[in-house]
Amino acid sequence: MRVRTVGVEEEFLLVSPAGRLSSVAPAVLDHAHAVEPATSEPGGHLEKELKREQIETSTHPCEDLRDLADQLRAGRAAADEAAQHAGARIAAVATAPGATTSVVFPEPRAERLGERFGVLAQEQLTCGCHVHVAVADDDEGVLVIDHLRRWAAVLLALTSNSPFWDGVDTGYASFRTQVWGRWPTSGPVAPFGDAATYHRVVADLVASGTILDQGMVYFDARLSARYPTVEVRVADVCLDVEDAVVQAALVRALADTAVRSRDDAPQPRTEQLRVAAWRAARTGMSADLLHPFTGRPARAATVVRTLLEHVSPALERSGDLDRVTARLDVVLAGGTGADAQRAWRRAGLDDAALLARARDRTLA
């Protein structure tokens, strides 16, 4: 049986040795593309993001998680090597610990976005982890999107890695989620039911004149406009490669479960999912989450094990169960990237030292 492919896009901050944001993305990309010109093939090269202070990597589609992990590490190393030629390094933190002044990338679409959305675009400097999972067609993709709805908050909690914003501890495990949630199409959406409905909703959003184009459809999970995949966008960029690998494995397992099970359980309301996402962003894995079937508070470990039980048959089929279980045990025992960042701050690390520690973990 052929295993469904999965790929990962990661966004990173560009920082100076002094721990300040570094607006050098154009120079980083120039160097990277001179060394290895970009191709039309999916994944494997550096790309721009909205701001000059960040960069994005991507993997090729993978069947084996070992290959995925190798590509993620190679992508991080290549991005850091290119950044060093511009006097910067990369850090896998989803928001900066210090001042967040940033500059829109110098290209027409980004500049139009900045003009239309004002301070929202000015303040938008966050880094996510996006998982692409292969689907047979758009109808299968919508089946996967609808199935993923109730689990998105758990996927977010497991990757929470943005406790700081503009020099303060926000009290959130994923403040990136709060910043990102200001975009008009972001977050959970109602179930679509079929591809025709999905495409009609997207067309109506574009026709409203509010968003620039289909690329600004920022649902938690969406049909990719470029590839035959569902793109799941809820996660913070992960401090550790293995957490990104597990995020991809869980997304793939949820996709397989959706296609095989044809689950008829009643769909939760979007209002419930928004509350679940807020709870996950607020406390990550350090306090109760909302149970995906009852909507009531439950221990984070209980909710994670409910997810694991739900997708265990799919993880067994792909050969991923042991790896995913072992890593989830590590997160349950030791916390997420947000917990690590706070521990470093409590130990007395300033912005520069914290980002240097994050850089080391990014490249481990």
UniProtKB/TrEMBL annotation:
<dbReference type="GO" id="GO:0005524">
    <property type="term" value="F:ATP binding"/>
</dbReference>
<protein>
    <recommendedName>
        <fullName>Putative glutamate--cysteine ligase 2</fullName>
        <ecNumber>6.3.2.2</ecNumber>
    </recommendedName>
</protein>
<dbReference type="InterPro" id="IPR014746">
    <property type="entry name" value="Gln_synth/guanido_kin_cat_dom"/>
</dbReference>
<dbReference type="InterPro" id="IPR011793">
    <property type="entry name" value="YbdK"/>
</dbReference>
<dbReference type="GO" id="GO:0042398">
    <property type="term" value="P:modified amino acid biosynthetic process"/>
</dbReference>
<keyword id="KW-0067">ATP-binding</keyword>
<dbReference type="GO" id="GO:0004357">
    <property type="term" value="F:glutamate-cysteine ligase activity"/>
</dbReference>
<keyword id="KW-0547">Nucleotide-binding</keyword>
<comment type="similarity">
    <text>Belongs to the glutamate--cysteine ligase type 2 family. YbdK subfamily.</text>
</comment>
<dbReference type="InterPro" id="IPR050141">
    <property type="entry name" value="GCL_type2/YbdK_subfam"/>
</dbReference>
<dbReference type="InterPro" id="IPR006336">
    <property type="entry name" value="GCS2"/>
</dbReference>
<comment type="function">
    <text>ATP-dependent carboxylate-amine ligase which exhibits weak glutamate--cysteine ligase activity.</text>
</comment>
<dbReference type="Pfam" id="PF04107">
    <property type="entry name" value="GCS2"/>
</dbReference>
<keyword id="KW-0436">Ligase</keyword>
